[in-house]
Amino acid sequence: MSDGSKVLIVSFGTFSCTLEEFNDSFEAMKEVTGFFQELVKGDPTFGVEPSAPELGEVGNLQIEKNPRDLSVVN
C-alpha cells in the first residue's frame, strides 16, 4: 500500500472544494454530499449558475442612482 496523501475533489454546480488527508474516502464523500444537501435545503439556489442581468435593467438601476452619469444604449 502507498503512503501517498488522499485528495477528494467535490463539485456541486458552481461550487467546488478539495478534501485532503482523510482515512475513508467513501465516508468523506458521504459527509460532504450530506453537507451539500443540507445547504440546498436552506438555499435552493446554492451552486446554481447566476443568471446574467439584462443590460437595460442594470442601466436603469444606475440611472436611478446617478441620472447624470449614465445613458443606456441597446
Brief summary of the model shown:
Helices cover about 40% and strands about 15% of the residues. It has about 70 residues and is an alpha+beta fold.
Helices and strands, with pairings:
Blueprint (H helix, E strand, L loop, with lengths): L6 E6 L2 E6 L4 H18 L12 H11 L9
**Order of strands across the main sheet:** 1-2
Strand content is 15-25%
> How far is the N terminus from the C terminus?
63 Å
Number of helices: 2
Judging from the principal axes of the Cα atoms, what is the shape? elongated
Average pLDDT number: 77
The secondary-structure element order is EEHH
- Strand elements, count: 2
Question: Which structural class fits the helix and strand makeup?
Answer: alpha+beta
Helix fraction by DSSP (H/I, runs of at least 4): 25-40%
Cα-atom radius of gyration: 21 Å
Total individual domains: 1
Report the sheet with the most strands, covering strand number, pairing sense and barrel closure. 2 strands, antiparallel
Residue runs with pLDDT of under 50 for 5 or more positions: none
